[in-house]
Amino acid sequence: MINPLHFDLQSLRIFLLAAELGSLTRAAEHAHLTLSAVSKRIAELERVADCALFVRLPRGLELTSAGHGLIEHARGILDGVNRMAADISDFAVGVRGHVRVWANTSAVVQFLPRDLARFLAEHPQVRIGMEEKLSEQIIEAVENGKADIGVFADNVPAPTLEKRPYRQDRLILLVPPGHPLADVERVAFIDTLAFDYVGLASGSSLLRRLTDAAVSAEKILRLRIQVSSFDGICRMIEAGLGIGILPEIAVRAELLGAGLRAVQLTDPWASRTLWVGVKSEQALQPEALKLWQYLGEAGASES
């Protein structure tokens, strides 16, 4: 039986180098080690794993099935060790605590950069770990303790969280030059459904909002292309591949200057609320509590 304590971190690093470069010689060069030292590390790793990780070929290396399986685990182990070292070094230089924030794309693009910059200017001893995720993933992460604070859309249920309004934004329709809707000032969503759409990837709260609205109108949302970011939506619309709905603040001024047109939506759901939520305010660490209160107050001050 394999003893996990026998795996050596340096050997795992060399294994990843060799897998990436496909050569023990090149791995040795990148690691500033001799070829014999690298070969010994790989041989020892294979001994501990009790199976071959590479097939030696005349012109390099090829991963075995076991080698492919080890790659993901090795990366996860080394990433975890690096995060651990970074966290410990932060405490050594005076950082008092870490706050894990997960937020959806709308919050990351529009509001959080400014708010977090102001918070950290007032609390330089706090370290914030930010991850951009889908609203459902954010709520689940806060529920199970993977995130301290979550920022998510108002159309995704979060019955187990303590939450408060964070910010409001407005959705607009973005159309390319020459489009039949380019000269319209305001439009109802139902009147746009005859055209092809560019949308976010499946699972996003914005796509859910559009799909729900289309279903309510007994229409079909014709998604021609799906991308993973607001910038991607803008680029696809700019190329004439469809129309799209996204937060007004996410539309760069230079795109409008280049001829794209932002059309106001008349639907009430086009005005959204972003929520900031925690599992339990009383259970928050002091630094997380400060940020939770700060974000709630920041939203209240602009409402």
Quick synopsis:
The protein has 303 residues and is α/β, with parallel strands linked by helices. The protein is 44% helix and 23% strand.
CATH superfamily of the largest domain: Periplasmic binding protein-like II
Q: In angstroms, what separates the terminal alpha carbons?
A: 61 Å
CATH class of the largest domain: Alpha Beta
The coarse silhouette is: globular
Percent helix: 40-55%
Total number of strands: 12
* CATH second-level architecture of the largest domain: 3-Layer(aba) Sandwich
Strand content: 15-25%
| Radius of gyration computed on alpha carbons | 25 Å
Given as residue ranges, the uncertain stretches (5+ residues, pLDDT < 50) are none
Mean pLDDT: 88
3D architecture notes:
- The protein has 303 residues and is an alpha/beta fold.
- The protein folds into three domains: 4-92, Arc Repressor Mutant, subunit A (Orthogonal Bundle), CATH 1.10.10.10; 97-167 and 273-301, Periplasmic binding protein-like II (D-Maltodextrin-Binding Protein, domain 2, 3-Layer(aba) Sandwich), CATH 3.40.190; 170-270, 3-Layer(aba) Sandwich (D-Maltodextrin-Binding Protein, domain 2), CATH 3.40.190.10.
- The chain has eleven helices and twelve strands.
- The strands form three sheets. Strands 3, 4, 5, 6, 7, 10, 11 and 12 form an eight-stranded mixed sheet that branches. A two-stranded antiparallel sheet has the order 1-2. A two-stranded parallel ribbon has the order 8-9.
- Helix 2 (24-31) packs across helix 3.
